[in-house]
Design a protein that fits this description.
Largest sheet: 9 strands, mixed
Number of helices: 21
Helix content: 40-55%
Radius of gyration: 27 Å
Shape: globular
Strand order of the largest sheet: 2-3-1-4-5-6-7-8-9
Length: 535
């Protein structure tokens, strides 16, 4: 029996090592089971390949062992040899079946390490129980059932994640409460929450740069916008000298922002935008509106709410808000802070920052009207916190282009690259297209389109194609299946079919660019698919 247990543990270890890509999918979906199973369905061949490889390895190795004699008379040393083969095979399978050029690499976080440990125990127990149960029933189908076990790896990983959830919930709640305690002890800290369907990260960094002209400010890094991400920042980065804490608040489900507010307890809430993002989880725009407004609902009675005037949902939510509020945009007749005399160039943008009291000239390296609107939103917050117009203008001048968000990169060979890879909404895309129009010579767009739009995805990508038809000379579409709606939109607006190039991956697109692009040309990278959406 001991040797059988050893084999079960070896197979469990091998299967777990082979499952690296499945654990990566689980991590990319923030350990949410609905998202994990959607990713499995989109990538079904990649998802079942590790299990199939382990089944083949197990079949071949067990067949070779059978030549050494009957199972009950096998030399003992062949059992550890088989375990070594399964573990080595699992490691090699995991390495070769994982994403080779992942945009967001698999990270061995403490949670992932715990998941590996609990999964090993669970898979070993499942295999041992399976062997015991089959033997008790006569043992007729033991080998067939064991061989079939790895094929169900996507299901076993989900089961392991489910059984590990109570422990993870306990650990995260302990960290969460510790972060709450840290913030509660800092009565001198101004706490700002930022949410929206898009623009959150840009606004966060813009606001942090402007506020640094007067306040020592801590901004959550990169796209740290989940409860555990923000918890980690609070527990590791807040210093006694910080006077402002800015937290980006992301959401994919109703209640996500409320949970973030339970952690941060913001005094200032900023709503950048509301629109059709993550419709695969939210399902309706009304649920998105409700979730984004959770930030404003969580503000105290003496809190302050700031809105970007989008002539739509944000304006509607601004009107219903009862606490102290401000709105910024391009309309001097109804906005508290607005811009005039906007001018763009390949070097950046200039404009007048305006309030009812005065105006001041501002210069920024950022491109596009959407970035100007983001700056206005941040300026309104800074002015309300007591900063002068001169301080705000100096801060605006210091804003650096945000990575992957209309970021202009000039290559030594003379090629202009506009990196807008993080954008995935039609409004932001239109802004990027307008910026591209201002560049001379050949203009090229590389894009896979937009994702996570549920049933509306095809229609919105068709609209996306129509919008880009008048601003580029060549369209390189990434993903032969996913980009079909964009191609249709381009052709419906009269874009020349010979100028539409469809490739399978970003690597192919880059190779094509080397052939067709030269000095003085401009390439816009508009959106980039997450690893769990690659074809």
């Amino acid at each position: 029996m001991f040797l059988s247990v050893l084999l079960c543990m070896g197979l469990a270890a091998g299967c777990l090592l082979a499952s690296k890509i499945l654990l990566h999918y689980f991590q990319l979906e923030s350990y949410q089971f609905p998202g994990y199973f959607r990713t499995i369905r989109r990538n079904i061949l990649k998802a079942i390949l590790p299990g199939v490889c382990m089944t083949v390895l197990l079949t071949v190795s067990m067949s070779l062992l059978s030549f050494a004699g009957k199972k009950d008379t096998l030399p003992w040393y062949l059992y550890p040899a088989e375990v070594a083969v399964l573990i080595a095979g699992g490691f090699i399978t995991g390495k070769h079946c994982s994403e080779k050029h992942a945009k967001k690499s698999f990270v061995y976080t403490p949670r992932v390490k715990r998941l590996y440990g609990t999964s090993f125990i669970i898979l070993s127990a499942l295999l041992i129980l399976l062997v015991i149960a089959v033997r008790a029933a006569g043992g007729k189908y033991t080998s067939a059932l064991i061989l079939f076990f790895p094929v169900l790896l996507p299901v076993w990983i989900a089961l392991c994640g489910l059984l590990a959830w109570p422990l993870e919930k306990l650990i995260s709640e302990l960290y969460f409460r510790d972060a709450q305690r840290i913030l509660k002890e800092r009565n001198d800290l101004i706490r700002i929450g930022i949410t929206g369907s898009w623009g959150k990260t840009s606004v966060k960094f813009i606001l942090g740069t402007i506020l640094e002209e007067r306040f020592h400010t801590l901004v959550t890094p990169a796209s740290f916008n989940t409860p555990m991400g923000v918890t980690k920042v609070i527990r590791s980065a807040i210093e006694p000298g910080h006077r402002v804490f800015i937290a980006e608040m992301g959401a994919r489900h109703v209640g996500d922002i409320k949970e973030m507010c339970r952690l941060v307890h913001p005094q200032i809430g900023i709503l950048t935008s509301v629109g059709p993002q993550h419709l695969d989880t939210f399902k309706t725009l009304e649920r998105i509106k409700k979730t984004k407004y959770e930030l404003i609902d969580a503000l105290p009675s003496d809190g302050q709410a700031f809105f970007a005037d989008d002539d739509g949902i944000c304006r509607e939510l601004y009107e219903k808000t009862k606490i102290s509020k401000q709105i910024s945009g391009m309309n001097p007749d109804r906005d508290d802070v607005w811009a005039e005399n906007i001018a763009y160039s390949p070097e950046g943008s200039t404009f007048l920052l305006c309030t009812s009291e005065r105006k001041i000239a501002c210069t920024t390296q950022l491109l596009g009207e959407l970035n100007i609107r983001n700056i206005l939103l941040c300026a309104s917050v800074a002015l309300r916190l007591g900063m002068t117009m001169e301080q705000v203008s100096r801060g605006i001048r210091k804003i650096k282009p945000i990575e992957h968000r209309l970021q202009l990169i000039r290559h030594p060979d003379g090629l202009n690259v506009i990196d807008d890879a993080f954008n995935s909404n039609i409004r932001g895309a239109r802004q990027a297209f307008d910026v591209l129009k201002q560049f001379p010579k050949q203009r090229i767009i590389v894009t896979p389109g937009m994702v996570e739009l549920g049933a509306q995805e095809t229609d919105m990508n068709t609209e996306f194609g129509k919008a880009m038809s008048g601003c580029c000379d060549t369209a390189i579409l990434v993903g032969k299946k996913r980009s079909e709606a964009i191609r249709i939109g381009l052709l419906e607006n009269g874009f020349p079919e010979e100028d539409v190039k469809v490739v399978s991956s970003l690597t192919e697109a880059t190779a094509l660019l080397r052939e067709i692009a030269g000095a003085g040309d401009t390439v816009l990278f508009e959106n980039d698919l997450p690893d769990n959406y690659s074809e």
